[in-house]
Amino acid sequence: MTAPARSGSDLAGLRSNVTQRLVTFLDEKEWHAREHGLATEIPATIRAHITAGGKRLRPLLCLAGWQAAGGSPDAPPMVLQTAAALEMYQAFALIHDDIIDKSLTRRSQPTVHRALARRYAHGDDARHLGLSAALLVGDMALTWSDELVTTADLPDNRRPLVNGLLDTMREEMHYGQYMDLLATLGPLDDRQTPLTVARYKTAKYTVERPLHIGATIAGADTGFLDALSSFALPLGDAFQLRDDLLGLYGDPGVTGKPVFDDLREGKRTLVLALAVGEATPYQQEFLRKHVGDAGLSGDTARQILDIITATGATATIERMIEERYAEAVGALDDRVLSRSAVATLRRIADDVVHRES
pLDDT tens digits, residue range 313-349? Predict the structure, then answer.
């Protein structure tokens, strides 16, 4: 078993601890399923999905929130388990998101619905079976995320507050996801919707609420949570803007996802909206014709990227990322937060913004 990380700023160690907690939990679920004649492939599939990779950003921020609010650098089991619950919830979200986006690859591996379809290729309708099974596997990850929280030994006076934050986090994420789905029906030059989606689907879900949850367990009050939000929200916006660029220009060997999926899906991003607004009439017509084409060829996709770059939209997004990064880091006040907490959050911020996957 992996030895616990001894320092709150040891991000690799904290990631390892979270992963080990999830693996142990899923091993126990697999044993229980085997003993009762149930489908062991459900916990095994979730374990394979989780251990294939991932930044563990949400649990890291939960642990950072705990530390920032005065919790010990060595997070106790109740905090580690709550942090692990956030990663289990993310597993649910990604499994379902890949179905929605018709994605074939995640973390350089077949997506869960595709892997299950391959497993049952001898069936009459393997594709439908794979999609249906993946929905159920994702639902189980959601159920087990709840179980990890409800069985964590949280203080009685903190549990209702944590539960409320979890409810809010999930509600915000689903609203953002729903808006993201329907945004593909709107115009390419809509700048407001991508910003709103980024705020709810990413900034709040990925950064703000995990920080709040960890800090709340440590006893933080509303004023302290507001101070964390001043860091979290601009950082979350920068995270999504970086994701949008990687979805267009990233190296598939590093990101683990095909580079042209967002264009074929017609995903509405701020970089695309800015490009349409600055494009020539011919370029606008080209973008409107080809963005969202499920059969988009690689050559045409590269022409789209050339247009986006030529309009200056990519450079604008890079500036916005750096501005939001500076705003987030500037909000870290070591008169409120401990020096070690500030150092940890700075490292996380740098990892979030200056990344290639």
Answer: 999 999 999 999 999 999 997 678 888 889 999 999 9
- The token duo for 305 is 């990227």
DSSP H helices, 209-312, are 209-217, 222-249, 252-255, 261-265, 270-278, 281-290, 298-310
Looking at the fold, whether 143 and 74 belong to one and the same domain comes out as: yes
Query: Do 45 and 112 form a contact (C-beta atoms < 8 A)?
Result: yes
12-16, 78-82, 205-209, 280-284: the lowest-pLDDT one: 12-16
CA distances from 332 to 38, 140, 143, 249, 260 (A): 49, 37, 35, 31, 36
Q: Which residues contact 37 (CB under 8 A, 6 or more apart)?
A: none
> In this model, does residue 8 exceed pLDDT 80?
no
Which amino acid appears at position 356 of this protein?
A: E
User: What's the rounded mean pLDDT across residues 250-279?
Assistant: 93
With contact defined as beta carbons under 8 Å apart, do 247 and 163 qualify? no
Residues 68 and 192 reside in one and the same domain: no
Q: How far apart are CA 220 and CA 33, in angstroms?
A: 39
Residue 142 and residue 174 in one domain: no
Q: Report the length, in residues, of the chain.
A: 357
Do 142 and 87 lie in a common domain? yes
Say what the pLDDT of residue 2 is.
35
Q: Report how many domains make up the chain.
A: 2
> CB-based burial of residue 158 (10 Å sphere; 0-12 exposed, 13-18 middle, 19+ buried)?
middle
Domain span including residue 118: 11-153
Q: Are residues 100 and 222 in the same domain?
A: no
How confident is the model over 161-185, as pLDDT tens digits? 999 999 999 999 999 999 999 999 9
At 29, which amino acid appears?
A: K
Are the C-beta atoms of 240 and 233 separated by less than 8 Å? no
